Amino acid sequence: PKASVIVDKDFVISKVDERIYGSFIEQLGRAVYGGIYEPDHEQADEHGFRQDVLQLVRDLQVPIVRYPGGNMVSAYNWEDGVGPREERPRRLELAWSTIETNEVGTNEFADWAAKAGTDIMMAVNLGTRGIDAARNLLEYCNHPGGTYYSELRKSHGYEQPHHIKTWCLGNEMDGPWQIGGKTADEYGRLAYETAKAMKTVDPSIELVSCGSSNSAMPTFPEWEATTLSHTYEFADYISLHQYYGNHENDTANFLAKSLDMDQFIRTVISTCDYIKAKKRSKKTINLSFDEWNVWFHSTEADKQLESWQVAPPQLEDVYNFEDALLVANMMHTLINHADRVKMACMAQLVNVIAPIMTENQGRAWKQTIYYPYYYLSVYGRGKALQPIIHSDKYDSREFTDVAYLDSAVVLNEEHNELVLFMTNRHLEASLAVSYDLRSFEQAEVVEHIVLEHDDPKAVNTKEKEEVAPHSRGNAVLEDKQLQAELPRMSWNMVRLR
Ligand code: AHR
C-alpha cells in the first residue's frame, strides 16, 4: 500500500493552541494519593509531591490540567479541601464509592500545578451545588483580597490569588450516572446563572459549557443545541468527552476509531454554529475536548473493588502498543481541527487511565501512550497545516474508506521546523508514503522517530519498557519530496529543518 500527500505553507488550518496538549487529574483512585502526592515516598518534596512524577509531567510540557473532576466534582464541597489539614472532613465520595480524605485540595493542587509548570482548568460542582458555591470558590481563588473568601485564602497561607483563568461549568451533566444529573434545560438554566455570577466576580475568566458525555449519548447533539441556547452569552467553549476501547479485539476497526472522534467534532462545531445563527451572534464558541483517551482494560477489575476505600487502584488501564497508535490518531485529529478545538485533556495523567503509572512507595514509569503524547506535545506546536492525503484504504466493521495513512502536519516557524506525524494503520504491510513539500525550504531530515512493535498487545511495566520509540526511520528528502517506508502498524514523526 501507498499514500501520497501534498502539504503547502498556505494550507493553514490555524495556529495550534498549545492547550490541546492538556491533561486531567481527578481526585479519584490513585491519581492524587499515591500518584502526584505521596508524602512518605522517598522522592517526595517538602509538600509531599513525588518528584519522579513531577519530572515525567514536566517532560510532557503539559500546558493545562483539569481538576478536581470528573464525576467526583458533582458532589464535591470545595470547602472540605482548604484550611488546616487536621480539620478537613473524611467524606463518602459518591461518584466512585471511595473515601475522600481531603488531604489534597485546591491550594495544594495549585502548588503542584506551579511545580509542574502547568495552568489549572477548574471544574465547579453543578450537580449537588450551584451558583453560590461556584462564585465563592472563584472569589477564594482569584480575588486579590479584602473580602470574606479572599481573606480566607490568605488565612490559609495563600497571600496571592491563584489566577485561574479557565473554569468548567460542571461535568457530564447529561449522564444518568452523574450525581445531580440534569435535563438539558435544567442544566442550561443553572449554567447560565452560574456563569453570569462567575463572570461578574471575575470578568477575565473563560467558561466551558458542558457538552455530551460522549457521541453515543441518546441526547447528543440535542443536548448541545439546548444547553448552548441558554449559555451562549457567557460560555466561551463547549466540552467534548470520548473514550474508545477494543473489547471486540478488532484492531483494524479500533485504529479507525479516530474517525468517529473527527465526526463528533464536526457535529459539535455545526451545532455551535447553528445556535450562533439562531442567536444572530457574532461570537463563536470553540471546543474543549477535555476528556479523551482509550479506556476499557480496567472496567472488569474495577467491578471487583470493595467500596469505601481510600485511594484504591481504580481505572488503572495498562496500555498496550495498539492503544498508543489510536492515541496518536486522536491527537492528529485534534490538530487537524486546530481552528475550533482550542483545549483538550488526555484523561487522565497519573495512574487513572494515564500515560504515567506509579507504584506506591516505588517507581514511576511510562505507559505506551506516553510516547505519542510526549512527541506531539513537544513538537506539535506552531501552525497546523492541512495535509491533502491520497491513501490506499480499507473497510472495517464500523468504518468504510479508512485511509491507511493518518497524518497531521505542524509548521514551527520559530524553530524553522516542519513536523510530519504519521500512522500506518495497515496490520501487515509497510506503507510507502511520499509528501510533496513544494513550498518549503527545509532541506534536511533532522530525525525520523518510529514507534513500532511486533506484538500489538505489548505493554510497559515497572520492570520493562517493552514499547519505546527508536530513531531509525528511513525518511529521505530530495527535491522537496519526502519519501519514507512506514513499518506496518507504526507511528512516526519526521522533523525537517
Ligand atoms: O475520566 C474518568 C471519568 O470519565 C470522569 O470522571 C468522567 O467525567 C468521565 O465519565
UniProtKB/TrEMBL annotation:
It is an enzyme of class 3 (hydrolase). The keyword Amino-acid biosynthesis does not apply. It holds the Pfam family Alpha-L-AF_C. InterPro entries: Alpha-L-AF_C, ASD1_cat, GH, Glyco_hydro_b. This is non-reducing end alpha-L-arabinofuranosidase. Homohexamer; trimer of dimers. Pathway: Glycan metabolism. It comes from Marinococcus halophilus. One of its GO terms (molecular function) is alpha-L-arabinofuranosidase activity. GO terms for biological process: L-arabinose metabolic process; polysaccharide catabolic process. Residues 290-490 form the Alpha-L-arabinofuranosidase C-terminal domain. It comes from the Bacteria. Keywords: Carbohydrate metabolism, Glycosidase, Hydrolase. The gene is abfA. It catalyses: Hydrolysis of terminal non-reducing alpha-L-arabinofuranoside residues in alpha-L-arabinosides. The lineage of its organism: Bacteria, Bacillati, Bacillota, Bacilli, Bacillales. Belongs to the glycosyl hydrolase 51 family. Its EC number is 3.2.1.55.
